[in-house]
Write a structure and sequence with these properties.
With 446 residues, the protein is α+β, with helices and mostly antiparallel strands. It has 15 helices and eleven strands. The longest helix has 24 residues, at 76-99.
Length: 446
């Protein structure tokens, strides 16, 4: 039993740590995913949307703290109850995601009249944020996420039922559990191509050993939990106040938007149609790309007989929704991405939520960029009138183009934020709190 519990502690604890840190790396992105779930057309909890970021931070914090708690044996009754509830909840959420009917309807009462509206299905549960897309090329499917949660539950249950056998680590326990957990974390870091979680865990374990050296009894367990929580909150604050430490999105620095657009390929399908010979009654299927008797009066089409066979699934580009339009509705995407000169994009996702404190720095950067011959555009999803009012109020000497709001959320986790492109490749990204000087921005091109 001792060996089983050790294996469960290492596996469960390390998995929760990596899962929590990947989400903590991008709390805003996780909050956007929660907003999708809370929508009236999904779980029907729109009143929770204003609290999405706070709930995202709390969820990340819980995963990281509980992961370390299991490894060091701290407050195991509370920890295992929390782990069980979290695992069951995530399992239910992924099952809901997997079984959502995209053709479903839900009722809503508008001005006393009942209306039927389309259900919104969340296709990606966000279990590992954008890390799966950025490192392995695709996210986990909802059923894969559900299977992962159920497999994890198998290892959580022994900890839950036998938590009384697990106590705050002795030094001997540390010699086994800490190196083994770090070794498993090395594997996870290799999978996700990001080594910060390993450094974070080493720092947290070092703090834990220091606390344990000078503190005894229950105080050591609570102090350890407080230390893990503090380290996690500092990391999340940094990622919110600046940008994610590791950018897994298709608009990360160094990624070519142009190349990713060119990777897209439409699916290859074969369409078959069936016609009935009126004389003999024989029904024959024809490939629609070849001659078939559509104009022969002796043949009639068999209703609802069209059959489509997918030969090749095709490739969907992760940047397929990146499109920029001017006020006349002209698509300037190709012009911007192919421009040989650097292009500075000031992203103001939604004008109503755009911070104005960094606008003086942005205007100073834009002024120098204009002098150097760079192209400068604003990007927003807001209306023309709202954007023009904002532009004049903040003395923005550049035109705004429109782009999809969800796409702009993906491009940069800051409102506003600055993105530097050169022939379709992202050369630099800066948060509103980190707007660079022109000299610093220019260095990103080298």
């Amino acid at each position: 039993m001792r060996i089983l519990l050790l294996i469960c502690r290492i596996l469960v604890g390390t998995t929760f740590i990596i899962s929590g840190l990947i989400k903590a790396n991008d709390p805003l992105g996780f909050s956007y995913k929660l907003e999708e779930y809370f929508a009236a057309s999904a779980l029907g909890l729109p009143w929770l949307i204003p609290f999405s970021l706070a709930l995202a931070v709390l969820a990340c914090l819980a995963e990281v703290v509980l992961g370390f708690a299991v490894i060091v044996g701290g407050r195991m009754k509370l920890a295992t109850w929390s782990l069980l509830l979290l695992t069951v909840f995530f399992g239910w959420l992924t099952a809901y995601t997997a079984t959502c009917d995209p053709m479903g309807k839900y009722e809503v009462v508008v001005n006393g009249v009942t209306e039927m509206r389309d259900v919104t299905c969340v296709t990606d549960c966000g279990c590992f944020g954008d890390a799966m897309k950025g490192s392995l090329g695709r996210p986990m499917t909802p059923w894969e996420s559900f299977s992962k949660d159920m497999a994890l539950l198998v290892f959580v249950l022994p900890l839950f039922f036998f938590h009384k056998r697990i106590h705050f680590n002795t030094w001997g326990d540390d010699l086994v559990l800490l190196p083994a957990s770090l070794l498993l974390l090395v594997f996870y870091c290799w999978v996700f191509a990001w080594w910060f979680p390993l450094l974070f865990a080493i720092a947290v374990f070092a703090g834990y050993l220091g606390i344990k050296r000078f503190t005894e009894g229950p105080h050591g367990e609570w102090l350890t939990a407080a230390w893990v929580a503090l380290a996690s909150l500092i990391f999340m604050w940094y990622c919110i106040a600046h940008l994610p430490v590791r950018d897994y999105r298709p608009y990360a620095v160094g990624k070519s938007i142009t190349e990713q657009r060119e990777e897209a390929k439409p699916p290859v399908n074969l369409t078959y149609v069936s016609y009935r010979n009126k004389t003999t009654g024989e029904v024959k299927e024809y490939l629609s790309s070849e001659p078939y008797p559509w104009d022969d009066p002796n043949y009639e089409n068999v209703p609802n007989s069209t059959r489509v066979v997918e030969v090749e699934p095709g490739i969907v580009s992760q940047v397929q929704d990146f499109a920029m339009f001017n006020t006349d509705g002209d698509d300037l995407t190709e012009d911007v991405l192919s421009d040989p000169e650097p292009v500075l994009l000031v992203v103001a996702k939604t004008i109503s939520d755009t911070r104005t404190g960094c606008m003086p720095k942005i205007n100073a950067l834009v002024s120098k960029a204009d002098e150097a011959g760079w192209k400068v555009y604003g990007l927003t999803s807001s209306s023309y009138d709202e954007t023009e009012e904002f532009r004049h109020a903040n003395q923005n000497m550049f035109d705004y183009l429109t782009c999809d709001e969800i796409t702009l959320k993906t491009v940069i986790r800051s409102n506003p934020g600055v993105v530097l492109l050169q022939q379709g490749t992202v050369r630099g990204k800066w948060h509103c709190n980190d707007v660079p000087s022109f000299a610093k921005a220019a260095k990103a091109l080298k």
